[in-house]
Specification:
about 25% helix, OB fold (Dihydrolipoamide Acetyltransferase, E2P), 22 strands, 4-stranded antiparallel beta sheet, alpha+beta, 4 helices, Helix Hairpins, 6-stranded antiparallel β-barrel, about 35% strand, 3 domains, Elongation Factor Tu (Ef-tu), domain 3, about 375 residues
Length: about 375
């Protein structure tokens, strides 16, 4: 599958097309002497089949922390922008009002429970009198109704006590999950309102984390075919870090993060012709940050015996892509090739070259077919 192909012959720039013409003129001006060139060997090696893309980092979970009761903020128990653990205290509201309400609800419950006990005792005596025919049916039914009403009141009192107890607990706000906090939305002394529009703080889960990206929809059949064989690997390269040892230079961002595809959208976007995918990364080092853009490489499979040459060896003309091959008599042969795809600094050649053949990687501008060459340098194979 050509996941990342070189430009087709019909779209080759005019300047590239002119390389052959300039080379022929240069050879003539060279007076027939050997042309110095840099060469490399075509190799047979395992090459990954990949699809490049640009991805956006997203937190798997995000919690907007809001108060569930209204009260004055008394304490903040964390530093903004720091990691917090699940269940860690975050905020404390003034609990005195809620504790007073709890005490009042408990007192009302105790009073009504005492009344209920008295009513139930009276009801027991009323039952005996009714069975002996001493009191009327109306008196008997009235007593039972009073007892049932007080029993219902006690249940309502218990619910009020539980609500008051929850309000006391809500005065202490804890982290619902582990993650990193953002900027504070309130400070000590502020009046915090229940379920306010602005959250007190936002917590993002950073490990594991998502990277969402889109690839051309034409690759979907291949993606599904390879995914049926094994989980698809995704490599994400974080933005490079600034090298403080050299002003204006950027140090390497380190090795790419490795993740796996965990989601493929159920439809191709008709406006862009792309399919949205998502990969999950462990992100143990915290290099991937929500909202950041990263370079993504989706690895579908590995071609075990690909013929590859350095990308600089492949030239383009109006007739298609070609390479200069060094023949046994040290002359240049202009060889048409079919490039399957480009993989980094390598071109995977589907047809036209064999492993071990020597190709020119620099100096093509002065070459013409059958021109004598002298190898000034043989390129190192990576």
């Amino acid at each position: 599958m050509a996941a990342s192909c070189a430009a087709p012959p019909g779209n080759a720039p005019d300047a590239a097309a002119g390389n052959g013409r300039a080379g022929r003129g240069g050879g003539a001006r060279g007076g027939g002497g050997a042309v110095p060139v840099v060469t490399a060997r075509a190799e047979r090696r395992a090459m990954p089949i990949t699809i490049p893309a640009v991805g956006a980092v997203e937190a798997i979970a995000m919690a907007q922390i809001r108060a569930q009761v209204t009260g004055q903020l008394m304490a903040v128990h964390f530093a903004e922008g720091r990691d917090v653990a699940k269940g860690q205290p975050l905020f404390s509201l003034d609990p005195r009002t809620f504790k007073a309400a709890l005490a009042q609800a408990e007192s009302v419950l105790a009073r009504d429970q005492a009344n209920l006990q008295n009513t139930q005792a009276q009801q027991a005596r009323t039952d005996q009198l009714f069975q002996r025919g001493i009191i009327s049916r109306d008196q008997y039914d009235s007593g039972r109704a009073s007892s049932a009403a007080l029993a219902a009141t006690v249940e309502a009192d218990k619910a009020a006590v539980e609500t008051a107890r929850l309000n006391v607990q809500y005065a202490e706000i804890t982290a619902p999950m582990a993650g990193r906090t953002g900027a504070l939305g309130a400070h000590v002394g502020d009046m915090v309102r229940a379920n306010d529009t602005a959250p007190l703080v936002i917590i993002n889960q950073l490990a594991p984390i998502y990277v969402t990206f889109s690839v051309p929809g034409r690759f979907l059949p291949d993606i599904r075919r390879y995914q049926a064989q094994r989980p698809l690997t995704v490599m994400a390269t974080a933005p490079p870090a600034i090298d403080i040892g050299a002003v204006g230079a950027a140090a390497a961002g380190g090795p790419p993060e490795r993740g796996a595809v965990t989601f493929i959208d159920n439809a191709i976007d008709a406006t862009t012709g792309t399919i949205r995918m998502r990969a999950t990364f462990a992100n143990a080092g915290g290099r991937l940050w929500p909202g950041a853009f990263v370079q993504v490489v989706l690895q579908l499979a590995t071609q075990a015996d690909a013929i590859v040459v350095p990308a600089t060896a492949v030239q383009a003309s109006q007739d298609g892509q070609y390479v200069y091959v060094i023949a046994a008599d040290r002359t240049a042969e202009m060889r048409p090739v079919h490039v399957a795809r480009q993989q980094g600094d390598w071109m995977v050649v589907a047809d036209g070259l064999a492993a071990g053949e020597e190709v020119v990687t620099d100096g093509q501008l002065r070459l013409v077919p059958k021109a004598k060459v002298s190898v000034a340098q043989r390129g190192a194979q990576k």
